[in-house]
Amino acid sequence: MIYVDNAATTKVDEEVLNEMLPYFSNKFGNASSIYSLGKESRKAIECAREKVANVLNVNPDEIIFTSGGSEADNTAIKGVVYASKDKGNHIITSKIEHHAVLETCEFLEKQGCEVTYIDVDENGIIKLDELKSAVKENTILISIMFANNEIGTIQPIKEIGAIAKENNIIFHTDAVQAVRKCKYRC
Length: 186
Hints:
By secondary structure, the chain is of the alpha/beta class. Helix content is about 40%, strand content about 10%. Strands 2-1-3-4 form a four-stranded parallel sheet, with helices on both faces.
């Protein structure tokens, strides 16, 4: 068999599997409990949180584990929108985002949010001038994928972040596909 969908789902790396096996069998304690088996599970989760934080150059308390990228996108986008209702209701995203972002934006449009879907160029890169001109007084979120899961383009994240920062807008990026592919830190 030749498997060509590793960008979507891939087998668990051998090293990761070996690290996880004890927690699937004899170290399966509830990490929120106070008994020793649970405390051992909590310690393993916190160690993993620190490792991820180091890769992303962030603080461990900024890492939230979810069941996957779609849940993370959904949680982040809805969280920003619901927490920012008094500041605005406008979201900017691109037309080539993962369905988890696009479907969440469509859901939020039905709840009264305004969403601007910006174009990409012939290489799949967002048009920064279009992004800048899409910013409004009520824009609360820019959500642009770091590395596209289907065409592989890497978006100009630093520039997008700068646009968001200068306009006091929260910037969300789905970086699931980017962590191992980018030479610089996210």
